[in-house]
Amino acid sequence: MTPMLNFIKGRSNAAEIARTFTVMMLIIIFITGLSVSTVVGWRLTHNRMDDAATLMKSLQRSVTDDDPDWNQWNLNSPINTKDTYVKVDTATRKRGHHTYYSPRAKKFLKARELTVPGFPAIRYRRGYGLFYRLGAEKKRVYYETWTSLNTVIHIFKLILGDMLLVLMICGVLGYFVMGWLAKRLNRPLADLTRAASRINHAENVSYHEALPVPDHPAEVHHLGLEINELLQSLNEQVLRDHQFVSDASHELRTPLTAIRGHISLIKRRGEQHPEIIPRSLNFIDHESHRMETLVESLLRLSRMDHVDVAGGYYDLTKLVEETVTNYRENLPQPIRLHVPPSALTAYVNADSLQQILVALLSNASKYSPTNAPITVTLTTLNGQPTVTVADRGMGIPDDNKPHVFERFYRVDQARSQEIPGTGLGLAIVARLVDLNHATISVHDNQPRGTIFTLQLATTPPVGA
């Protein structure tokens, strides 16, 4: 469906803005016009009532010997008497009862009269329109005047007509102007939508795509930046998952191929050469155990992608000492421990910290000679509790340091085949570090070896 059709049917944001603004504008114009019409109508009506009172006084002055002089009344009245009708009733002892009518008043009074509800002084005469009736009595003479309100009604109709015309013009013009302005303001958002649609329906996705970020308006600019950050994060996750699947397939394929080879060897030569069976079974047992360890590590990493750990305040001095003491006997290398004499507190998950320390010690032991000591140091660096694990092993080249925490990454692949492990230990460490809102880095240990530096938090993260 085209954007214009969407706009006409009111499905777009621009159409919604234009419709809402037009309705609001029409309501404001209507209320303003109604208020102006009411005030003007009331003022005009009130002025006609004042004119009727003035005409009544002029009429009373024109009565001579109980006989009204209509010519004198017309001449002396400060207000035009053309649209005013008069009836005068006199009752005297000398002349008796007499009724006088102004010109055309008799015909006027014969017309059917209706009273406007709520306004008894305002009368409607069929064929003549609305009139204001005013009565007064002076010296046994009763005066009645009917002052036309048709001029007021005419002006009121003109105001209402102009208001309706303005409403229609402003409604149509305002709708299209606001529609154009809304579409112009909405264009950057529409461009983002089209770009996202192209990426979503692209046949070949490189996972490096990004949306074009407009410079204005500021809201759409920030939205584009946030979407690109989210898209980059998702792309990186997809690439990591692809790499993970590729690496996991490779790591599992190698032992499976070897196991199937030994099984085939036993089938072909087991009966003639039974001496190869124990050696093949030992190899199958070793490789299957390595696969079991690899699968358990993969499941552990997978579970850690969707969990949070509960932290608390712990004495690091005591926690590090207990971990090193309990694990010391499992390593061939001597461990040197340096901790402060007083308690050093950090906000961590105790189990996670112990797993991190054990994994770092195990990694240092794998890549270090048996007579090279491993040093564990607890100190404070830049106000943060810091744990370092230093070894005197083979070291890590500078170009390999950024990748040591990636899954299945192993330094010196040829030599690493001789060292037991799955290549997931440091990846698990990196995930545990993230869950504890800590940081870990790797540096060279002079003159030889590697130092892993773990910096812990002293307070809970914001929102925790």
Name a few traits of the molecule:
disordered N terminus, alpha+beta, six-stranded antiparallel sheet, five-stranded mixed sheet, 464 residues, 3 domains, Heat Shock Protein 90, transmembrane helix, Helix Hairpins, phosphorelay sensor kinase activity, 53% helix, 11 helices
Structural notes for this entry:
There is one protein chain. The protein has 464 residues and is an alpha+beta fold. It folds into three domains: 13-156; 218-304, Signal transduction histidine kinase, dimerisation/phosphotransfer (DHp) domain (Helix Hairpins, Orthogonal Bundle), CATH 1.10.287; 312-455, Histidine kinase-like ATPase, C-terminal domain (Heat Shock Protein 90). The protein contains eleven helices and 15 strands. The protein has helices spanning 3-8, 13-62, 70-76, 105-110, 150-200, 218-269, 276-304, 316-327, 350-366, 413-416, 425-435, and strands at residues 63-64, 67-68, 84-92, 96-101, 113-116, 119-125, 129-138, 141-148, 312-315, 335-338, 345-348, 374-381, 384-390, 439-444, 450-455. Strands 4-3-8-7-6-5 form a six-stranded antiparallel sheet. Strand 3 (84-92) and strand 4 form a beta hairpin. Helix 2 packs antiparallel against helix 5, helix 6 (218-269) runs antiparallel to helix 7 and helix 7 (276-304) packs parallel to helix 11. It is rod-shaped and about 160 Å long. Mean pLDDT is 79; it is low at 1-9 and 413-417. GO terms for molecular function: phosphorelay sensor kinase activity. It catalyses: ATP + protein L-histidine = ADP + protein N-phospho-L-histidine. It is an enzyme of class 2 (transferase).
